[in-house]
Amino acid sequence: MYDHGKRSVRKRTFAALTALLFAVYALGSAPYALAEDGAAAISGTTFQLGESVDAAILIDFETGQVLYERNADEPRPPASMTKLMTEYIVLGLIRDGKLNWSDVVTVSKEAASTPPDGSQIYLAEGDKHTVEELYIAMAVGSANDATIALASHIAGSEAAFVDMMNAKARELGLSTARFTGSTGLQEDTVISARDLAKLARIILQEHGDTFLKYSSITQYKFRERDKDPMINYNWMLEGNKDVPNFRQYVYEGVDGMKTGYISAAGYCFTGTAKRGDRRLISVVMGTDSMGERFLETAKLFDYGFNNFEMKTVVQQKSTIESVETVKIKKGVKTEVPVVTESDVTFLVRKGAEPQIEMTNLDVLPPEELVAPIPAGTKVGSVTYVYTDGAYQLEKTVNLITAEEAKKGSWWRLLLRGIGEFFRNLFKGIIG
After folding, report:
1. Could you give the strand order of the β-sheet that contains 40-42, starting from the edge strand earlier in sequence?
2. For residues 253 and 234, is the Cβ–Cβ distance under 8 A?
3. Handedness of CA 60, 63, 68, 72 (dihedral sign)
4. Which CATH architecture has domain 49-308?
5. pLDDT tens digits for range 46-97
6. pLDDT, mean over the chain
7. The one catalytic residue among 11, 29, 52, 83
8. Predicted local distance difference test score (pLDDT) of residue 118
9. Residue among 29, 52, 108, 142 flagged as catalytic
10. What is the pLDDT of residue 199?
11. Domain 315-430 grouped into CATH 2.60.410.10
12. Are 336 and 402 within 8 A, CB to CB?
């Protein structure tokens, strides 16, 4: 069982240390810096999560910028948030044509033997359900038996599927992740808040529409004979706004992702919300109650949406003063204009005037740029550094040709070569 007494003593101690560290830090903190406990200082105001939160992180989906963090690199049990990796693997197999939503899964003995102390839909050995039905049961109802049924169907056994999970974690660079099961019931499955946020961002980048289609389902009746539908454990979903019991937790724009709870983990939640063109991803780990994880997540989302805005410092297809053209060989012209391939956008504090500096200009030499050269060809890159107090972020944008560089005719190249020969000869004589 979960020992609330030990957690409360530990958290009172943590709170006292937090207060001391923050007081020391505040004496010399810069805007948009991170305090020792992860509280972010913005223009003289402070933002802080409740002391019950063991670990947390808030990132911007588009840029990946970290807006807030607390103990974000400590590996902790994620409970059912583990299923995000299971869902990611399923979605990848479907995308690659190796699995179909309509495929029929025969429930294995392993899945039917799932311990009864967690969420499940009471599958029996030999039951037949589609991949889609089991996926929804996993995504909406966090059904452990449905999760193991999918894992066994895909890899032959849950153990073999766990090997796939750990291999995928290494591939994605999730250095703190160690999976020992597909469901998250195991206490020795661990991952950091930062790596969970990274995984969540990858899922949304690669499978956004499909993932959110299922994660935003508020309730789902698995079988026609079931008396009641399963209810999504994500009470923040905007679709719950008319449900009296959930109304206080509903947050505008929330459409995913995954809750979790075991006694070793506390109440956890990886969430995402979109407002306008901005999407945020948050992770909260180790709170003391089902509702608290959502209230703390709402604080993170409020902080991210209310205090930051996107600022474009370089427009797409802009000319860079220090490199308006690049020299080429064997073209009708000897140089071709270049522009930025994309814009350069940073997430900045609202009302801030950040310092933007161009660094690391890199352009290919003429010997590597031989006509004909199509428009849009990459010929270099330039890096911009954004500085706001103690905080720095850099972004690199490609430089591309703004127009086609056609190859010069043989007589044009011959005359140009003769001209260059005599110019060099003349320089040698007078030099």
Report:
1. 33-34, 40-42, 45-47
2. no
3. positive
4. 3-Layer(aba) Sandwich (3.40)
5. 678 999 999 999 999 998 999 999 999 999 999 999 999 999 999 999 999 9
6. 86
7. 83
8. 87
9. 142
10. 99
11. yes
12. yes
